[in-house]
Amino acid sequence: MKDSYDIIIVGGGIVGLASAYKLNTRYPDKKILVLEKEKEVAAHQTGHNSGVIHSGLYYKPGSYKAKNCVDGRRELVAFAKEHKIQHDICGKIVVATKESELAHMNKVFNNGLQNDVEGIEMIGPDKIKEIEPYCVGISGIWVPCTGIIDYADVARKYVELIRAKFPQSKVLTEHEVKAFEKHTDYTDVVTPKGTFSGKYIITCAGLQSDRVARLEGVKPDSAIVGFRGDYFDLSEKGLHKVKNLIYPVPNPTFPFLGVHFTRMIHGGTECGPNAVFVFKREGYNKTDFSFRDTAEALSFGGTWKFGIKHWRFAVDEYRRAFSKRLFLDRLRGLIPSLEMDDLVPGRAGVRAMALAPEGEMIDDFRIEAKGNAIHILNAPSPAATASLAIGKAVEEMATKQFNLN
Ligand SMILES: Cc1cc2nc3c(=O)[nH]c(=O)nc-3n(C[C@H](O)[C@H](O)[C@H](O)COP(=O)(O)OP(=O)(O)OC[C@H]3O[C@@H](n4cnc5c(N)ncnc54)[C@H](O)[C@@H]3O)c2cc1C
């Protein structure tokens, strides 16, 4: 006998779990199943990120990122307080170190004002020193509403609440979705451990989101490529040089925030991440390689166009990935007194970036609905900050698309 569900969600990252939680909160009687391929939820991007509760400063006013980040952050902080998830709204500074960065920093500041980010303030070199005594910059932005949290803790809390409040729903790990078999009124979702039937399907598969969407029958024109981010940790000797969070002015050409210093909620301070094109989507070591991932990335025209346009960036990031000295040089832009033995190698994460056929990185969140399915095709940073707002957007889209009322 197959288990039947109203909605089956593929992917137990923070976006899939927040969507399940929001849908069940709105529809407490619906039977929802989340299928996750790994042993634990939050095993990929959700458990390998910087753990920053982003303010909403950077994003283009009017974009889904801007709106969902600001709303999602406020809701996340309230959620963390209510459910006693360890977090700290410690604030951060964005620091310009060269005249050439000032124009973009002003743009970022104006985006923050338009996005309704509370309390932001332009600051000068003295205030930078007062907030972060080892940091040297010519101008900066103080962002008091930025914070830190462990997003795997948040994801596990969503699971706990789903299980406690909606016992008819389930979150199953070690269930990799391999196929979807379509019938008139339902879809069979096939895993090696069993087949489950669902009236409606939602896919939130992060680094595999294009493939899982394709399996389900849509043809996204974008493709996912992975960008690994390596981190160093501040050693005991270097730890006192950073109090909270220090960010550079980001390079306006890329949707990455630049290598930054982040105090972590469970202790320690990380420096990173860089952004290196990976040859394996879920590969966390520098030499990991997957024939399938590489062949697929290289057979997509967008990857070549991106590579041709940005080869200089790609080569620089690759060199830096293998050289602690080059990594240190970049960090010294913000903290000149940093020394080699202030850094020890840390962990890595891989970001899923959707590339368009023309080689542009798709910067904004992208969710598409077709027939009895909804696909989250692009949920890059700040999707962890925004998970509750994205979950709400998925719930509203599902209400319309699946006629749930
Ligand atoms: C290095 C790095 C730093 C970042 N920093 C921040 C930050 O500070 N703040 C912030 O807000 N965001 C940050 N982000 C972004 C944030 O982590 C992601 O936007 C968010 O985690 C995306 O969540 P997700 O659920 O879409 O993806 P994921 O967490 O990757 O989850 C997708 C899940 O789908 C599962 N899956 C895939 N295929 C299948 C299948 N066939 N069957 C079953 N399950 C499947 C995977 O195993 C995975 O668990 C960062 C990301 C990275 C990588």
Structure description:
With 405 residues, the chain is of the alpha+beta class. The protein has helices at residues 14-26, 64-82, 102-114, 125-131, 151-165, 209-216, 291-299, 301-309, 311-322, 324-332, 387-401, and strands at residues 3-10, 32-35, 52-53, 87-88, 92-96, 121-123, 139-143, 147-149, 170-172, 179-182, 187-191, 194-203, 223-234, 245-248, 260-263, 269-272, 276-277, 343-355, 366-370, 373-378. It has eleven helices and 20 strands. The strands form three sheets. Strands 5, 6, 7, 13, 14, 15, 16, 17 and 18 form a nine-stranded mixed sheet that branches. The chain binds flavin-adenine dinucleotide (FAD). Flavin-adenine dinucleotide (FAD) binds next to helix 1 and strand 18. Residues 10-16, 35-38, 43-46, 48-52, 54, 176-177, 204-208, 212, 229, 273, 349-351, 379-385 line the site of flavin-adenine dinucleotide.
Count of DSSP helices? 11
Low-confidence stretches: none
List the bound ligands: flavin-adenine dinucleotide
Helix content: 25-40%
Q: Give the termini distance in whole angstroms.
A: 28 Å
Oligomer: single chain
Let me know the average pLDDT: 95
Number of strand segments? 20
What is the rounded Rg?
21 Å
Task: Write a compact overview of the structure shown.
The protein has 405 residues and is of the alpha+beta class.
Characteristic key phrases:
405 residues; nine-stranded mixed sheet; 20 strands; 26% strand; binds flavin-adenine dinucleotide
